[in-house]
Design brief:
Layout lengths: L4 H6 L7 E4 L3 E5 L7 E7 L14 H17 L7 E4 L3 H4 L8 E5 L9
Antiparallel strand pairs: 1-2, 2-3, 3-5, 4-5
Bound molecules: guanosine-5'-monophosphate and zinc ion (ZN).
The site of guanosine-5'-monophosphate (5GP) has 12 residues, from strand 2.
């Protein structure tokens, strides 16, 4: 997707602090962090929203979640706790239409969210 910001980060056309990558997944720091740790875990493949996932994507989604947990462990926030969020479409506040798992932690987080 030529106009997708996260595709451009994945393709190194836009800078980001990349904290993990493999052949299917890239994880980078959010530009406006909502906590001491705020990482976005994304698939390399452009998928606009969770509504666009297909059965064949089950393994990929599992990898996104397990990678977020691994990054949380590597940053020392796993035991204390962290939040993982996928926003979907307008009512959730989704602004970038390339699925991304927010990993937020390093401070106490409130619930329910706003
Ligand atoms: P959403 O609201 O779609 O769930 O989350 C999009 C996230 O992308 C936001 O947390 C926002 O701060 C982050 N973001 C927007 N533009 C950029 C950018 O250019 N670089 C990085 N690293 N993050 C971005
Ligand atoms: Zn994209």
């Amino acid at each position: 997707m030529a106009e997708c910001l996260f595709c451009k980060i994945i393709n190194r056309e836009i800078n980001a602090t990349i904290v993990y990558e493999d052949d299917r997944i890239v994880a980078f720091n959010d530009i406006t962090p909502q906590g001491p740790t705020h990482v976005l875990v994304v698939p390399r493949r452009h998928i606009p929203t969770l509504n666009d996932l297909e059965p064949g994507d089950d393994q990929l989604v599992g990898e996104l979640i397990r990678r977020a947990a691994a990054i949380a462990k590597s940053k020392g926030i796993a035991a204390g706790g962290y939040r993982t969020v996928f926003n979907t479409n307008h009512d959730s506040g989704q602004t970038i239409f390339h699925i991304h798992l927010h990993l937020i932690g390093g401070r106490a987080l409130h619930w329910p969210p706003g």
